[in-house]
């Protein structure tokens, strides 16, 4: 039985991907699945409908007419399909090399992305986990200042058997001196990528990378990056900026954007002030479907999350703007004039951990009921280093609105609206309220604790009858008994005390025998009788 032959291809109006929906007439009934010649001819006819390009996102409607029986036709109907973005064509670059001055002293011995958050995570776990959950597993992490703990965490978590993923790679790119360069330090976000452009180019030779995703290592949010990349592909954009609505109080801290009805960015202003800030206000009523009272958020801020076409990024960094060092303040405001720069508005929870205040508030918000953000989600979990610690042990404790990490020892203590990090130890009578305790890197045995106390020293953790509130306690801090550390209505000289959460620096030693001031809720004075102690970190005296 002869197969049906088509010679006439009649394009119809409209752009579409062709899909067979109906066969009419006896000849089309003879187009059997097992007839390879018929299938090949039909595929050839489809390619003719599609301008010879083969399968694609768009094509033309067609009617195929039979040579044997002109009355018999194969109708190909309009069926709109997207050109779906492929995560295998995306490489992520996480910027983690900033000095972190606004998070000091938490960054005195660690890089910003290595700062603990949420009890058991590190900031770097946020973009890393978002990448894995989005299907992106080609990741570069760029480091510079105090990167030892960050490198160690990445190795233990993502390179040393902690998190398993297939057909991917995680590579750490540390700032280094190159031949012919005056200095090897990154001079900005764009300069960091430029200095390792040769690594990326070499990587492209063996991988089909079409898009570069630039991420920040100091933010808290959950995002499917492929939704961002999909919009980038749909708009045929050269650059796509992920943006978020922000309120008046913090708008000047970010790069602000304006975009037209098509989503194309028409104005970008980096951290504007005064009249320049006022000029960046936009009507955010179009966000009614996503957020409550959008009038409270009259600005659209760049999140510092960008998608570039690979060739566009290489051209900008190597040729067009080879002397510029920062994406936000230098390259993007110029690029929008001669490139298709699109905006992707992200309306879920997003917090930029750029200051001690925002870091403290973001952690305390995790304790709220219900919280604005949760680390736990069975479909999109956040990963961190597997520590294999025992469950937390508590004895006669009062705990309210708190997050308790694993491996802690809590004895007859009171914890309210606080985060307790891994391996934390709180002794009898101690109280924590509105505090973040980061925990410890290792345990001290009972014998070690007894020996330290017999020598008049203080073990890691919080001693008996100590009261702490509005405070960040860094890793491995040693706080003795009968200590009061508070930060409410403290009366100290303005030049010596600044508002905001108090920070107990890493390895801080605070004991009842130290000749320091005790901070109470109302006064700052030298104790009388039995001496009590507190810390002398920034924000203290």
UniProtKB/TrEMBL annotation:
Domain of life, per lineage: Eukaryota
Name of the molecule in the record: Glucose-1-phosphate adenylyltransferase
Annotated InterPro entries: ADP-Glc_PPase (IPR011831), ADP_Glu_pyroP_CS (IPR005836), NTP_transferase_dom (IPR005835), Nucleotide-diphossugar_trans (IPR029044), Trimer_LpxA-like_sf (IPR011004)
Pathway linked to the protein: Glycan biosynthesis; starch biosynthesis
A GO CC term assigned to this protein in UniProt: amyloplast
GO aspect biological process, one term: starch biosynthetic process
A Pfam family: LbH_GLGC
Basic and acidic residues: compositionally biased ranges: 28-42
Source organism of the structure: Triticum aestivum
């Amino acid at each position: 039985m002869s197969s049906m032959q088509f010679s006439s291809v009649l394009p119809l109006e409209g752009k579409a991907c062709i899909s067979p929906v109906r066969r009419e007439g006896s000849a089309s009934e003879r187009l059997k699945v097992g007839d390879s010649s018929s299938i090949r001819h039909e595929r050839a006819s489809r390619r003719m409908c599609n301008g010879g390009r083969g399968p694609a996102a768009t094509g033309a409607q067609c009617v195929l007419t039979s040579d044997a029986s002109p009355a018999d036709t194969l109708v190909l109907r309009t069926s709109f399909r997207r050109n779906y973005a492929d995560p295998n064509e995306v490489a992520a670059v996480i910027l983690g090399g900033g000095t972190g001055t606004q998070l000091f002293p938490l960054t005195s011995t660690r890089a910003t992305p290595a700062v603990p958050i949420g009890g058991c995570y590190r900031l770097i776990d946020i973009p890393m986990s978002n990448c894995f959950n989005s299907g992106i597993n080609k990741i570069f992490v760029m480091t510079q200042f105090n990167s030892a703990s960050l490198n160690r965490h990445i190795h233990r978590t993502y390179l040393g058997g902690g998190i398993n993923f297939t057909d991917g790679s995680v590579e750490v790119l540390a700032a280094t001196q190159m031949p012919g360069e005056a200095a090897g330090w990154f001079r900005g976000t764009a300069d960091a990528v430029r200095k390792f452009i040769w690594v990326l180019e070499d990587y492209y030779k063996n991988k089909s990378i079409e898009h570069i995703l630039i991420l920040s290592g100091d933010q808290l949010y959950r995002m499917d990056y492929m939704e961002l990349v999909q919009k980038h592909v749909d708009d045929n954009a050269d650059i796509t900026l992920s943006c978020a609505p922000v309120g008046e109080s913090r708008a000047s801290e970010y790069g602000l954007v304006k975009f037209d009805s098509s989503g194309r960015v028409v104005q970008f202003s980096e951290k504007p002030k005064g009249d320049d800030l006022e000029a960046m206000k936009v009507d955010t009523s179009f966000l009614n479907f996503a957020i409550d009272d959008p009038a409270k958020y009259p600005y659209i801020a760049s999140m510092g999350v960008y998608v570039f076409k690979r060739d566009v990024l290489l051209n900008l960094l190597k040729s067009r703007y080879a002397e510029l060092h920062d994406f936000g303040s230098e390259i993007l405001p110029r690029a929008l004039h001669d490139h298709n720069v699109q905006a992707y508005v992200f309306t879920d929870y997003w917090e930029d951990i750029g200051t001690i205040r925002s870091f403290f508030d973001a952690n305390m918000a995790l304790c709220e009921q219900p919280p604005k953000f949760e680390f736990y989600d069975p479909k999109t979990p956040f990963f961190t280093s597997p520590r294999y610690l025992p469950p937390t042990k508590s004895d006669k404790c009062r705990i309210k609105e708190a997050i308790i990490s694993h491996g802690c020892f809590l004895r007859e203590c009171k914890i309210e609206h606080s985060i307790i990090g891994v391996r934390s130890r709180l002794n009898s009578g101690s109280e924590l309220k509105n505090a973040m305790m980061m925990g410890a890197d290792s345990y001290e045995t009972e014998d070690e604790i007894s020996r330290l106390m017999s020598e008049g020293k203080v073990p890691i953790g919080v001693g008996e009858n100590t009261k702490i509130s509005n405070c960040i306690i860094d890793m491995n801090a040693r706080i003795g008994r009968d200590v009061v550390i508070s930060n409410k209505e403290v009366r100290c000289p303005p030049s010596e005390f600044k508002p905001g959460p108090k920070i107990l620096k890493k390895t801080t030693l605070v004991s009842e025998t130290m000749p320091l001031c005790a901070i109470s809720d109302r006064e700052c004075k030298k104790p009388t009788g039995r001496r009590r102690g507190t810390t002398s970190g920034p924000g203290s005296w």
